[in-house]
Amino acid sequence: MIATGVLPFPLDFEALYLKNQEHYHRFALAVLNDRQDAEDAVHRAYFEILAHWPDLLADGNVHQQTWAILRRTVISEKLTSYRDNLAELTEDNDVARALCTLPSRQFDVMVLRYLCGCATADIAWYLGVSASTVDYHGRKAKHRLEQAMPARIRRSN
User: Which domain holds residue 66?
Assistant: First the structure.
């Protein structure tokens, strides 16, 4: 007899989906600035994650690898456009230009922290790094932004 129903996803994959889908969608929406584009990108990322699931599990850092797939999927084709259109999202051309000059890890931390509202522990989990590394990238990004716009950003002591 041939099974005609939908095969279930692996439970650990379903758990990953349930744990991350809201933040992944918020990240995609922040980057793409369009709900349908964000939804499509996250679905494409999850299909790629599922296609590579056994390899991702064997890798040892599923969270970092799935974040890398999501990030690549969401922003690979849209990053240039996003950076060009970031002023519309932030309504601040100086901040947008400065944010767009950040290295990718610093950019990710700033977007996840300030546009998506993610906690440091969640950002660390998504990026596959420690909370102190997230804070380091946040400090470095803030320093770069301060250098780019010294009159606009005050140092917090």
Answer: 11-148
